[in-house]
Amino acid sequence: MGMAIFLYVKTLLTEKDRFINLLKVNDHLSFSIDGFLYLKKRGKSMNLKLIKASENYERQIADMLDEWYATGEKIVPYAIRITDYHDFRNYCKSLEVRIPFGNVVSCSTFFCIDEDRNKVVGAVNIRHFLNEELLRDGGHIGDGVRPSERGKGIGSKMISLALEECKKAGIYRVLMVCDKDNIASAKSIINNGGVLENEVDVDGVVQQRYWINLIKDEEKEALPDIIRRMSIEEIPECVNVIRKAFKTVADEFGFTEENAPRFTAFATEEKRLWYQFCVEKKPMFVFMHKGSIAGYYSLAILENGNIELNNLAVLPEFRHLGIGEKLVKDAFEKAKEYGKEKIEIGIVEENVKLRNWYEKLGFIHKGTMKFDFFPFTCGYMEKNL
């Protein structure tokens, strides 16, 4: 009986070293069964979970990085190699980017641990939004499996766990990119629902771009409301939200493309938002309601050192749900993260109802200005944070 089970194990082995290890203990049936069960698991049913780096996992993370550096391979994702892990406290801090800088977007890094073995087997870096570069060849998720743990299905499971984190963050359409010749990565992406959109040449390397939809129509009703960073591919949708939201104001006060061509309802275009996003690096945020963008706002750093709330917009069909107030309060918190003590806003002065609404949220009216190109008076308000 023992020999029969052992021979069955032998037929399943695909890695020579694992078979040799079993041969060394072939007189112990229990060890052979353990080997069989381990191979049966093959990553898919391993007890894997994502963790944030902390001193509790310093030894396990260092062990993985020691192994990886010893191979001479390029370590991925990039986030886990940019800082010296021997200064572990500083290393942990470097893994979370809350405020984007340059071409670096806000992101979170997770390590994947096999709890059964208390062993870190890989890592993922989740970008909170896409800029122009990431839309082309980086994607939302960067991932890597440590050399000794490859070929076990860990990559697919790790991506699955990362997609769950994306869903929690309100990212329901995820872009993943891999080299065309990286068959294992492509398989892991496809196993998680990736659909190939196209292939692009990046510095002579062909990259495959896959999109993964995380929610079905019947799941949208149960999704929580979430405010998150706007991603570059969402610019067209946000232009639609802004134009529709401000069009109701235009209709109420008689603004048209002829008498107020610079008014937000008429002047907002994709190329304008693209310039603000890519060149001016304006922080832009969306309100996700039932899986769709229902609201939007952006921030601008002013020369006086304050921050300005721009283009606060809520689709007409989603008003009176408290979305606008939530967006404004979120802007307060984001302004504080940028180290600002005062936030400003401009309004249509004749819109008394809107002015009163902002006053209830703590804004103080500071003055007005009249411009020849607007058929209304511009009002200015501010709030100390």
What is the secondary structure topology, with strand pairs?
Blueprint: H1 2-12, H2 16-24, H3 29-41, E1 48-51, H4 58-71, H5 88-94, E2 107-114, E3 119-127, H6 132-137, E4 141-145, H7 154-168, E5 173-179, H8 183-191, E6 195-202, E7 205-213, E8 226-229, H9 235-253, H10 264-267, H11 270-278, E9 284-289, E10 292-301, E11 307-314, H12 323-337, E12 342-348, H13 352-360, E13 364-370, E14 377-384
Parallel strand pairs: 11-12
Antiparallel strand pairs: 1-2, 2-3, 3-4, 5-7, 6-7, 8-9, 9-10, 10-11, 12-14, 13-14
Helix pairs in contact: 1-3, 7-8
Describe the protein in words:
With 385 residues, the chain is α+β, with helices and mostly antiparallel strands. It has three domains: 37 residues, no CATH class; 129 residues, Aminopeptidase; 165 residues, Aminopeptidase. It is built from 13 helices and 14 strands. The strands form three sheets. It has a seven-stranded mixed beta sheet with strand order 8-9-10-11-12-14-13. It has a four-stranded antiparallel beta sheet with strand order 1-2-3-4, with helices on both faces. The chain has a three-stranded antiparallel beta sheet with strand order 5-7-6. The longest helix has 19 residues. The N terminus is likely disordered.
